[in-house]
């Protein structure tokens, strides 16, 4: 079987990960136990997860002209991700993400877009030939919205299914968004986008179902330790999480989406792909860091054997 081909049109960031006992109050200085620098950005994370699970990945992205940008490109190259369309923006810093991980492994993330803000619709025209060869296009919202909409239209016109991860949540134009094949928010994003409460599973289902009235085709809500929820006109189905004791959940949603794209492209079976992606995401929480906590396909298969 040929490897799935996936194009990610999205962000990359340097993650500045600080483990904290608690957040400082205004005007207060406190000590934090640990710090780590790692490769992140929702687009890059999803690209690495798709690649590590066996897809051939093309990355369309922008980096700054400093040290971080060069390292980000080297990191993509080290995974075998196609970086022909990862371009350097002169006189601009790369995207960075200060991340605070608490003692329960939960995270709070700030992003500074930097060069990611320069990924314009023209980038899609430039990479057209490679994108046309893809089984899926993966999109997130850490790049300009005009580029996200252009990519959705490109996918729709060329019959390439688009998986849209609306993260971080934004005010969206559903005239474009409805053309994506699968919409994948987490609970917080679902709450912001639907304007409905997500404080119980029942309410999460209602909030996701409300998006069907905006003509979305399929919605997968990532629910962390509760699993993932598929909502379409035909069915609503909860896929339970694979239980683990998480150390750091940063990037788990990206691990889910990137691996899901590979598994779905391989089998065409959405429930099977969600079950596998739930497991892949769970394993990514067992060690610290974002991309470096993602298993290779071999490591993953050994675990699920
Ligand atoms: O989803 C996790 C990611 O969000 C981090 O890697 C950070 O860079 C932000 O983009």
UniProtKB/TrEMBL annotation:
Cellular compartments annotated: Cytoplasm
Residues noted as binding ATP in the record, renumbered to the chain: 186, 222-227, 253-254, 278
Record text on subunit structure and interactions: Homodimer.
Organism classification: Bacteria, Bacillati, Bacillota, Clostridia, Halanaerobiales
Similarity annotation: Belongs to the carbohydrate kinase PfkB family. Deoxyribokinase subfamily.
Job description of the protein: Catalyzes the ATP-dependent phosphorylation of 2-deoxy-D-ribose to 2-deoxy-D-ribose 5-phosphate (dRib-5P), allowing the use of deoxyribose as the sole carbon source.
InterPro entries: PfkB_dom, Ribo/fructo_kinase, Ribokinase, Ribokinase-like
Domain Carbohydrate kinase PfkB: 5-293
Binding site for K(+): 248, 250, 284, 287, 289, 293
Record-linked HAMAP family: Ribokinase
Protein name: Deoxyribokinase
Catalysed reactions listed for this entry: 2-deoxy-D-ribose + ATP = 2-deoxy-D-ribose 5-phosphate + ADP + H(+)
Keyword vocabulary terms for this entry: ATP-binding, Carbohydrate metabolism, Cytoplasm, Kinase, Magnesium, Metal-binding, Nucleotide-binding, Potassium, Transferase
UniProt-annotated binding residues for substrate: 13-15, 41-45, 142, 254
Gene responsible for this protein: deoK
GO cellular component: cytosol
Molecular function per GO: ATP binding; metal ion binding; ribokinase activity
Superkingdom per UniProt: Bacteria
């Amino acid at each position: 079987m040929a490897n799935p081909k996936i194009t990610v049109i999205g962000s990359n960031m340097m993650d500045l990960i600080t483990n904290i006992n608690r957040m400082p109050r205004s005007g207060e200085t406190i000590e934090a136990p640990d710090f780590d620098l790692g490769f992140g950005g929702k687009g890059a994370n999803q690209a690495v997860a798709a690649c590590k699970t066996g897809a051939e990945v093309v990355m369309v992205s922008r980096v700054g002209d400093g040290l971080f940008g060069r390292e980000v490109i080297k990191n993509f190259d080290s995974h075998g991700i196609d970086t022909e369309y990862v371009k350097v923006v002169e006189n601009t810093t790369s995207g960075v993400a200060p991340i605070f991980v608490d003692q329960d492994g939960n995270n709070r993330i700030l992003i500074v877009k930097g060069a990611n803000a320069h990924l314009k619709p023209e980038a899609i025209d430039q990479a057209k030939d490679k994108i046309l060869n893809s089984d899926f296009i993966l999109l997130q919202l850490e790049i300009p919205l005009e580029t996200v909409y252009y990519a959705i239209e490109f996918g729709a016109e060329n019959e390439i299914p688009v998986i849209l991860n609306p993260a971080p949540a934004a005010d969206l134009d559903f005239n474009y968004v409805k053309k994506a094949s699968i919409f994948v928010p987490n609970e917080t994003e679902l709450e912001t986008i639907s304007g409905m409460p997500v404080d119980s599973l029942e309410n999460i289902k209602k909030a996701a179902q409300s998006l069907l009235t905006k003509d979305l085709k399929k919605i997968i809500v990532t629910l962390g330790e509760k699993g993932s929820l598929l909502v379409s006109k035909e069915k609503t189905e909860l896929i339970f999480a694979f239980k683990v004791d998480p150390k750091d959940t940063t990037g788990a949603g990206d691990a889910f989406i990137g691996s899901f794209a590979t598994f779905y492209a391989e089998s065409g079976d959405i429930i099977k792909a969600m079950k596998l992606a739930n497991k892949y995401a769970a394993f990514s929480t067992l060690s610290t860091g974002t991309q470096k906590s993602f298993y290779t396909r071999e490591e993953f298969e050994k675990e699920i054997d």
